[in-house]
Amino acid sequence: MIKKLHEELFQSIRGEAMLLGITASLDPAALVEAMIDGVDPQESPHWYDEVAQTLETWDDIDFGTRTFWLSIPLKASSPKEILQRHATVLRRKFHEALALPGMSPEAGLLETGLHSSKQALQNLPMMFRARPATPAEHVWLALHHQQRGLYMDESVGLQGHEKSLVEGQAQIIPEPWIDQGAQTDSKDENRDRIFRRRYIKVAAASEPSYQQVLAIRTMPLGGFEFPGGEWMSAIDQLDFPVDWVWRLQITGAREAKKQNAVNESRLADQYEQRTDETVTGSNADLDVHQRDLQLYQRALGRTEREVSIVPTVLLAVGGSSAEEATQYGKQIIEFYRGMEIGVDAPLPKLQEDLWWSMLIGTPTKPVVKEFSLPPTTSFDLSGAIPVSNNALGAERGIMLGINTTGGRRTPVLHDIEGAVLGNKSGCFAVVAELGAGKTVTLKKETMAVAKRGGRYLVIDKSATHEWVALAEAMEDIGIESTIIDLSNPRGSLDPLRVFGIEDGAAHVESLAAMLMNIAPSDELGIVLNETLNPIFLEQHGIDSLGKLVRFLQEDATDALQKKLGRTMQAFSKKKQGRVIFDETLPPLSSDSRGIVFCTYGLDLPTPDELQSEHLFRQLSLEKIYGRAMYALIARISHQICFQDDSDLALFMAAEAHHLTSNPQGLEIVNSFLREGRKAKAVLGMDSHDPVEFGPKRGLIPFRILMRHTDEEEAKKGLTYLGLDPQDEELVEKVRGFSPQQPDGKVILGREGECLIVDQSGNHGEMQVTLPAHKAHAKAILTTPEPAHAGK
């Protein structure tokens, strides 16, 4: 798709054009604005505090991006307009020579120019979202060229978040002074050394910028395959900023074929004049030229819209010293040498000419043609993917981590609420092995949602009750949290008491049906349905499971009802039965902003026991009860999350297989995936195997893959992200994420490494970061001592 868009971009242009990819620093203020956008400071003051502390952590991070520019000379509509343009230029030069006040072009010329620019803009593919550059942006670009490598530019806003890259830029562009080879720095009288100084010194600000301009001279004879040969976008892999400019000469296929006919005639004459049959030398060169001409001619006939392009590709780096600039240049040459691309650093005089040629509005100098590459087509050139970036995440939201895909670092924002408001699913999932960072990632998302005014519910199966520390940290900042420990409950999950008779009866019926393994159409199932009719319950004053058991045992006259009572009584005697049968416990408040269900100690059936009818009939009461309780917790969470569509609710299913191995739990998961967006209800899951997210896992748009040292598991994770599982480099990357030391701890600075596919389907590398609030970061990392059931 992206290659096709580039083809359309090149095919929409005729004549001369400039395409620029210019690096820039991101404005921290814009990042802060993106993180607080849509969050009320009165209702969520702790999120503003988190953002303020996050801003302080950015001092050591140079967040950067790449901006893209397209310059197309406007063609005159008539000979009269050509004369008017020349006359305007002559009058301006006359005014400058006599030191007269400056003059503006005639209104008619301006109007015609604006009309032509609008037409040119309309011809460009809409997916590039091109817009006219503002005067402030033109000033910013000119100053950037003069100050390259000094980091003196005004920082720019987030791409897509601001209408303009910069605001308030002074409308003055100083005239640069350029010193070829920085001769003013040298005390050596030997002027021959100038040939070694393949850089220039640009002085326009208080500090000079030393810059080196490089040109791509040769490309591989066999060209590049796509995907895999994106040689222009690959430059962002370097860990220092590199600006690039393409100067293009584009003609239609018909004109190019006419020129090919001339070239073919010349080639035929040269073949007739050759005097020997040597394998090497001029004859062999003629054969190469003939082959290239045939391939080029064939490529031009690929489509009627095809164009011929003669590109000149220039690269520029800068620094505060000549050594810094030349060192960057050497790294670029080595980088492209590995791709069989030849890059040259021209002599100082040519350096200056090429530097000017990188500025918008400058005419094409002869040196540009000297460094031009052979003619190619939009089909072949588009495979370089010049107009691309490594942006990940949304335009606003939670800062989940830092984009490490390329050399420039950018924040990765996760806008969960924005996704559901945009009529999309906000669900997300993390795949990784033990200790790779799954739970830390889920905890960070949870804490951020709570601070921004949302609510959360979590199933915590861990023996350490690892989510309790997070809940306690939330309480410290005034976010109410409820802990329901099934082994030692301080609250009740009795649906009749939590939701009332009307809504709770359905939950009890589902629970009882699972406990006794009865179908709705069975005779016992019909009796159960009649008993749990809200009218029947109200008539007999039954508003809790405890009262229901007593009624079925003491007051019921129907034999099947008594059978129901005996079975439910057996489960109520289990240690973990208190959480639903003990009437002395206060019922769970469905209004609580945070709820953690601690399920350690629940015995669950194995997948084999669930799939084998023989083994399923032999399940112990503990496993039957555990299975039913997991389903009940999922149903309770589902109702709480779906009950208010004005309130973002996050349900975290840590270790997803505990929930999805249960058909009833899987039904709840699928409901979140398919319908959660309608109620602002979001599901987050983690697992070592994406299969455990269920058959509807393809509906999860935001996916994270962390370390998996097992090769096959790494391949499964890559497949789930939509990446090539046979790509050995990617597999090894996943296996090497967040490497552990012998003591099991991750190497400092490598924590949270992962691959992600974001809400828009973009793939890239990221490093999950901890909350800036130190106490909350500690709460996320805290792993208490194992909790023992019943204590």
Q: What does this molecule look like?
A:
By secondary structure, this protein is an alpha/beta fold. Among the domains are: 2-17 and 175-384, no CATH class; 74-125, no CATH class; 505-583. Helix content is 41%, strand content 16%. It contains 30 helices and 20 strands. A hairpin with a 5-residue loop joins strand 4 (200-203) and strand 5 (209-218). Helix 28 packs across helix 29. It starts with a helix and ends in a 10-residue tail after the last helix. Mean pLDDT is 86; it is low at 787-791.
Instruction: For the record, give the distance between the C-alpha atoms at the N and C termini, rounded to a whole number.
Output: 58 Å
- Strand tally: 20
Share of helix, binned: 40-55%
Shape descriptor reads elongated
- Placed side by side, the strands forming the largest sheet appear as 11-10-20-19-18-12-17-16-13-15-14
User: Low-confidence spans: pLDDT under 50, at least 5 residues?
Assistant: 787-791
Report the β-strand fraction as a percent range: 15-25%
Count of discrete alpha- or pi-helical segments spanning 4 or more residues? 30
Largest sheet: 11 strands, mixed
Give the radius of gyration.
Answer: 34 Å
> Structural class, judged by helices and strands?
alpha/beta
Estimate the mean pLDDT confidence.
86
Descriptive terms for the model:
791 residues, alpha/beta, eleven-stranded mixed sheet, 30 helices, 20 strands, 41% helix
Layout: helices, strands, pairs:
Blueprint (H helix, E strand, L loop, with lengths): L1 H10 L3 E11 L2 H9 L8 H12 L7 E8 L7 H19 L9 H17 L11 H12 L30 E4 L19 E4 L5 E10 L24 E10 H21 L8 H19 L6 E13 L2 H16 L4 E3 L3 H10 L8 H5 L5 E2 H4 L16 E6 L6 E5 L1 H6 L6 E4 L6 H14 L3 E6 L7 H9 L4 E5 L9 H4 L1 H17 L6 H9 L2 H6 L5 H11 L3 H14 L5 H4 L12 E5 L8 H5 L1 H5 L3 H22 L6 E5 L3 H4 L2 H13 L5 E7 L14 E4 L5 H10 L7 H8 L17 E5 L5 E6 L5 H8 L10
Parallel strand pairs: 12-17, 12-18, 13-15, 13-16, 14-15, 16-17
Antiparallel strand pairs: 1-2, 1-6, 3-4, 4-5, 5-7, 5-8, 6-7, 7-9, 10-11, 10-20, 18-19, 19-20
